[in-house]
From TrEMBL:
Protein name: N-6 DNA Methylase
InterPro entries: DNA_methylase_A-5 (IPR003356), DNA_Protect_Modify (IPR052933), S-AdoMet-dep_Ade-MeTrfase_prd (IPR016843), SAM-dependent_MTases_sf (IPR029063)
GO-annotated biological processes: methylation
Native source species: Filibacter tadaridae
GO MF term (any one): N-methyltransferase activity
Gene3D superfamilies: Vaccinia Virus protein VP39
Keywords of the record: Methyltransferase, Transferase
Organism classification: Bacteria, Bacillati, Bacillota, Bacilli, Bacillales
Length: 302
């Protein structure tokens, strides 16, 4: 068995041996591992990715047993692509700070942190208590410095501006119209789109010159509220890239996603640079993916 398999087996065996809800038991298994009371027997050289993936497998099993509409995990293939891009955008820099306003279990955030490497810290916001606890025990086991906030991320945040914001944005309407009135992207009629408000909130907490990497609906710029979004992005951000993800990653083409990369303006920056428009090839095509990543690396260097 690989270290990843051993970690999953340890958590799964513990969870199945209790009367607790699976995800609650998974948290308890990780807490015992942290305390040194019980732990998987791992081979030397266990990596942060081994630990993240092992816990991820257990979380995925737990989510299937107790399905909740907001309990969804960003696919590893997308997380690793965002991690690759973030790593290239921060190459050669030290003490990188990250922010995820919709952290969930932290799988996307930790994938990106692992890709960037050492000297990286993060702020993470999540309204769901159990998802935050899962993310917190994972952060401790992979030894990443993360400050967690359990709250509505669209309320005022005590988060300092960061180098990179990364998030798989929650999609849908935001029900708190009174709070949404504080945002430019609140429409004159009806509810605001939560994913629009998350973009606006995220840019407030990104440093000038910093980047925001969002997973967004593929039809983001075609929705009925896009007439508000377009001028906001033009005024408050620089759109650096729109990357279409393969439809094969999604069960239904209507749920297709893209990666939106924004940069927060600063006085000396070049605002006229072209927007990169790209389409990720089928990820099982190794040659096509290698060429695509070369293109992304050249774009990031430029």
């Amino acid at each position: 068995m690989t270290n990843t398999e051993k970690i999953f087996s340890y958590i799964d065996t513990y969870a199945e041996s209790t009367e607790m809800i699976y995800l609650e038991a998974a948290i308890e298994a990780c807490e015992k591992w942290i305390a040194g009371d019980e732990m998987p027997r791992l081979e030397d050289g266990v990596s942060k990715e081994d630990i993240r993936r092992g816990i991820q497998l257990a979380v995925l099993k737990g989510m299937k047993q107790n399905a909740q509409p907001h309990h969804q995990m960003t696919p590893d293939s997308i997380g690793m692509l965002l991690g690759h891009i973030a790593g290239k955008l921060t190459a050669g820099e030290e003490n990188i700070t990250l922010f995820d306003p919709a952290t969930g279990t932290g799988n996307l955030l930790f994938t990106v942190m692992n890709a960037i490497g050492n000297n990286v810290s993060a702020s993470a916001v999540e309204i769901d208590d159990i998802l935050t606890r899962l993310a917190a025990v994972t952060a401790e086991l992979v030894e990443h410095s993360v400050t967690f906030y359990i709250q509505d991320a669209l309320r005022p945040l005590m988060v300092d501006p960061v180098d990179i914001t990364v998030s798989d944005l929650p999609v849908g309407y935001y029900p708190d119209d009174e709070n949404a009135l504080e945002y430019e992207l609140m429409p004159s009629k009806g509810h605001a789109y939560a994913h629009h408000l998350f973009i606006e909130q995220s840019m407030k907490h990104t440093k000038p010159g910093g980047y925001a990497l969002f997973i967004v609906p593929a039809n983001l710029f075609e929705s009925d509220q896009s007439t508000l979004l377009h001028p906001f992005l033009k005024k408050q951000t620089i759109i650096r890239a729109i990357i279409q993800l393969p439809e094969s990653l999604f069960k239904n083409a209507t749920h297709a996603k893209s990666i939106l990369i924004l940069q927060k303006p600063f006085p000396e920056m070049n605002k006229t640079q072209d927007v990169l428009l790209a389409k990720v090839p089928t990820m099982t095509d190794k040659k096509a993916m290698a060429l695509f990543l070369q293109k992304m690396d050249a774009w990031a260097a430029e």
